[in-house]
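Title: Prediction job returns without error message
Component: structure pipeline
Severity: low
Priority: P3
Assignee: unassigned

Description:
Job completed but the reporter wants confirmation the result is attached to the right record. Sequence as submitted:
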Amino acid sequence: MTMVQVRPAPAPARRSVPGRIRVISGITVASLALLFAALAVGSSSARDGLRVIGRDAGPQVVASAGLYLALSDMDAQVANLLVIGRDYGPRRAEALKQYDARRVEAHRALLEAFELSGDNEAERQTVRSVLDGLGRYERLAGQALLLNDQANHAAGPPPDDVVRTYRTATDLMRLVLLPQAYNLTLESGTIVRRTYDEKALMVPLVRVAVAVAGLVALGCLIWLQVFLARRFRRVFGPALMAATVTTAVAMIFGVNVLSQDERALRTAKSDGFDSVLTLARARAISNSMQGDQSRYLLDKERADTYEHTYLDKSLSVVYYEAGNLSTYHQQVSSGTTGGLGMLGPELVGRDGAKVMRAYQDFQRADAAFRRLVTDGRANEAVAERLGRTMTAFGSYDQALQSMAKSHEQVFERAIGTGENALDNLWRLMPFAIGAIGLLVIAGVWPRLKEYR
């Protein structure tokens, strides 16, 4: 009988150790990949939010708000010119210069809005419509100014044919062009708000995911080191320890960057963009208010309408419970708003108090101007309109611009801080990935070679 010699099976321990090392190493590498994938997703989401708010839709909102201001001031300057007549030569030259400057600003703002609209055909069509309407308005305004020059009237209400032509122009501006310009602001503002809401939810979630993925990766690295130390009866390898430290640093740095970007988005939106937009709208509406003063003086048939329009705009800027303009003037002179109206939340601190004082002066000047008109003292009313009232409005407008500039600086700093933090993260990530990968290989490969 032939005896079959059976070889003893290899030791299970020697056969399973390389496999277990590979499995644990694979899990560790997968956890590291998850960590860096979470960092990539989070930083990409934050950068997209900063781009939309800081470089895309945000500037488009400001540009369209500037368009509203330029258009409303064009109409106000035409009204001023019609009221001035042949008198007040320096004021007339200044109004013409201001009209031309605002016309250039309007065309520039339309061009910028068109470029920033990208592939949004609806916004592009709105811009084209405003541009076409602006051309019609300029022709009508030019006709009114030509008729006004031909009439050669003294300061005060112009002849009826001038008023009728101007009515057509101002109706086109107030009923068509300004609403369209405002719609551009609303459309872009909706994009900003939607983007902020998405990123305000997404970035914190991804930050938590980065922290969890980082802890899992650290746990896997420690597991790998403990297994190798016990199996080979050696102290922890320096390469894997360095990989662990590098991973911890990458996780902490990534979480910190995402936290910075979350704060930057919140600051840019709440303390920068929202205030800049509010002040831009307030400036545009206020500018239209002072135009209503001239319209109130030049068009007797629509004087009551322009007075009510002025009151409605005033209530939207700084709100008080008032049923008529006289009561509103009294309420404004009495004190602060308590946070009501468009400017209510902005009227805090030293800058806010300065704006409120300037607004009170403007409304007091308006009350004095209207008393002269009511008393039939047209020449004095024109002098008041072109003198104290216009000076008071200039101070108020300057205060708004100063406050807006400070918020613009907050906005730009926040966007710059967020983008710089992301740039630093993206510069360091490739080095971190490469270093950790090489360190893991350096820590595992010598152990695997022992089984060859």
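Comment from assignee: result matches the submitted record. The mean pLDDT is 86.
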